[in-house]
Amino acid sequence: MMLSAHHKLQLYGALLLLPAALLLTTFAYIPTVTTLISSLFLPGFRGAPAEFVGLENYQVLFIDPTFWKVARNNLLYALGTIPTSIALALGMALFVNARLPGRGLVRMAYFTPTILPMIAAANIWMFFYAPQIGLFNKLLGALGFSGVNWLGDPAVALGSVMAMSVWKEAGFFMIFYLAALQGMPPELKEASDLEGTSRWSFFWRVTFPLLMPTTLFVLINALINAVRVVDHLFILTKGGPNNATNLLLYYVYENSFAFFDRTTAATITVVILLTLAIIATLKFTLLDRRTHYQ
Amino acid sequence: MLDAAPLIRFSQVSKCWGSTTAVRSLDFSIAPGQFVILLGPSGCGKSTTLRMLAGLEAVSGGEIHIQGQDVTHQPPGARGLSMVFQSYALFPHLSVADNIVFGLRSRKVPKAEQRERLAKVAEMVDLTAYLDRKPAKLSGGQRQRVALARAVISEHPICLMDEPLSNLDARLRADMRRDIKALQARLGMTVIYVTHDQVEAMSMGDRVILMQHGEIVQDAPPGELYNQPATTFAASFIGSPAMNLLPLTEGLEAAVIEGVPETPVAPLAAATGQLGVRPEDIELRGAGEPGVPATVISDEYLGADTIIHLAVGRHSVKARLAGRQSMAPNTACTLAWRAQAAHLFGSDGKRRDDLAPCNLMPDVPDDADARVVPRLPNVGSFAI
Domain named ABC transporter: which ranges (chain B) (predicted)? Predict the structure, then answer.
């Protein structure tokens, strides 16, 4: 068979794409599609074939109060951790980007939590939060306050988990901000200094707008992490007390591997995927228009 | 030359980084309305000097005064000057208009006045049609004009320019030289302009401060710099091709060029130094005529003129002849120049005006005043 030059080029391109396409299909697209399919079926008992039930699984899920509690927890978790860790990351990046004695050491110190595996970090924080011997309660005790049951009190537990997440994430986001700050030509600061622009004004009129692409990137990452990373729950609270710290992905895990309810797990997964897709689309369309890319 | 009240005064200003000295006790004053060029090779301290004046670099010693005020430790914004950067330093996320009025917003100039001044300045630098564009959508020349507009709109009396034309192509650079000079004259600004390009220095400056190793070598108008270079460095830095510098030795009764004992060129006292002659001041004559004997090595045709490379003793000499001249290699000839075209430098490289070079062209009527009358500098191949 004779191929024209154009077709040859197309075949060549397709072959180049093949390895990536194969991996993505096997590990991303097929699982997504099978998850979507299994969320539309009810498994049959005693070897009976699965029964197509349409959106019934979703109706059941949406009247499940635990699901709403977990979703609400995850929303609070996202609202609590994302802005805090981004603001903290930006503040730390600005701080270590300035002339500062021992700058390299400070940078490394800020970045250390990122290097630690989440499981290890969670174990460290277990000791901080422990009711009797924990660091925080010891400190409070030394100041004459009564201790707090950081992880056992339903009113406090989610806040404790969030605090640890912020500690873990901020250093990671700082690296992106630091890289962006170092990519900014120093003449911009000099030019604005010559005009007598205050530091505050320079930050809001120049630095922050020029960091927008980084902020957008970090925002998406932080959002995904808020839903995706639940490793610390295994160590700290296991979703308790009374689901006070349960998050969506951990709830998926529980349904799937503790309650062996794969159908509910699949249904929640589809809901999570849809929500994330909508938010990411909104962010890229709305914020991109106001973001300057160099 | 200077007014009683200079606009800018440097007294004993120096700058060190650790053990390296970038600028060594600089002393000079600048009068209002002057276009002053800081000229020198890279690393000579000219940019550091400008940045110290701007307040972007801390001074290690000495004082800087602007309008009689000691500004040595003042922040840049309090010094009342504007600056055009080599990289233009435009804010990439702001439109041309916002870039230009950036400083006015910082100084909280009322909106209406901002618009008025913007319109005037944009008209002046021919950017009115581009006010809504982002810098990335502009050509190099347009970006340069935005940077210029940002400096002009501030209405500061002093404008600093740090090699502003070095990122432009040659043709545009020639246009911008004229535009900047015209703008400066029209607004009566005092401009301090850093460059390593002698063409920019000669064509734009009212006054050129030539620097080397962090010190001032010569501070003079362009014509004087060209016609009476203070040192061999000044002589070789200005002019293209550079001035010929020939070491002298003792002859029988006078100093002679090394390897050419038969022709006296200067008094005996000049013997340890060097003789400088500009390529365009050399006249080529037939072999055997009075003058310095030489042999042609090659010729180099440049269009408007031809550079002839010659061997004099063991040294090589360039002569510039008008138009197209062709000379076969190894042709013997004689070089001659008028007494006022020869420059004598001592063994320390400094100019010696106490000695009079010999006149190799006694047949040409000598104009006694020719040395003091500056002629138009002939640098490179541009028309002034």
Answer: 8-238
